[in-house]
């Protein structure tokens, strides 16, 4: 699965996140003042597995004044319900296995990792982790995230390739939420769907 010391450099895999668009909306231009949440934003990044760790870089650019970004915490901690506001997410599984992980990363520095034994079933906090350091950098018109996650033993030693989905929930200043992913395979925004994990590592 992951590279070892003897392996050559592992190439990054690039991706672009797209906002979910409800199929209930009529086609064509929208009336003035009715733009979808997330309009004016661009989300992209790159991902790879190397040396038993998953490395993720994610970038948000564009109209960041419209985004509700929490201030960086001096004491980041493990928290639930981070997805209720602006939150970066990663879903990871071994190909062909029902188990998967969900990683939540807040721009404030708070985090959580959950383990599921099947689709939205058997959720528990990942017991192998006590901390998950990651970096958030903000500049004019851009926010960047960098994560290097030493993978749990079962994923690190999996004989199968890993499949991943990179996602984000973006809260606008007006409280509206938009849902971003590499693909949205269903009629609703659902990051847990296995057919949405299209990045093969």
Structural summary, described in words:
The chain has 201 residues and is an all-beta fold. Helix content is 2%, strand content 40%. The protein is built from 1 helix and 12 strands; from the N terminus they run E-E-E-E-E-E-E-E-E-H-E-E-E. It has one helix at residues 153-156, and strands at residues 13-19, 41-50, 53-62, 87-94, 100-105, 111-116, 124-125, 134-139, 142-150, 162-171, 177-181, 199-200. Strands 1, 2, 3, 4, 5, 6, 7, 8, 9, 10, 11 and 12 form a 12-stranded antiparallel beta sheet that branches. A hairpin with a 2-residue loop joins strand 8 and strand 9. The model is unreliable at 24-34 (pLDDT under 50).
Brief summary:
By secondary structure, the protein is mainly beta. It is built from one helix and twelve strands, in the order E-E-E-E-E-E-E-E-E-H-E-E-E. The radius of gyration is 17 Å and the shape is globular.
